[in-house]
Amino acid sequence: MKALFEPKRTNTILYCRHWQETVSFYKEYLELPVVFANEWFVEFQLTKTSFLSIANEGRATISAVQGQGITLTWQVADVAAVKAELEKQGIVTTPIKRKWQARVCYCSDPEGHRLEFWTAENEDRQE
User: Fold this and answer.
1) Which of 14, 32, 39, 68 supports an S-S bond with 44, CB 3.0-4.6 Å?
2) CA 29 to CA 8: how far, in whole Å?
3) Quick check: 46 and 32 in contact, CB under 8 A?
4) Domain stops at, among 64, 82, 99
5) Model pTM score
6) Residue 119 lies in a domain
7) Domain extent at residue 35
8) Number of neighbours of residue 107 by Cβ within 10 angstroms
């Protein structure tokens, strides 16, 4: 079955009450590159065609959900290495668990959005 459309570019927008802290988290701790920024909206590049934007709720027409019902999930080359780096920067993470034939860990951004980092078990280099 053919999809209704094929996205050429994706962008997830998170509307935040704790906008500056959340922007700093993605910029300084996760070191995502900024591709656009103004006084209330910052867009980060995740991959060649995938982006994450942080919008200030106070300047937007959409309210923040304060992390309720949102998980950003990212497959990474080595979940243990990502977890170690996050913790080195003082970010609290969960223990690595096995889930759906993958090894996963979680943390939250300052707004309360859950981030899931995972590596397929057959790709994971560390136990």
Assistant:
1) 32
2) 28
3) yes
4) 64
5) 0.86
6) yes
7) 9-64
8) 20
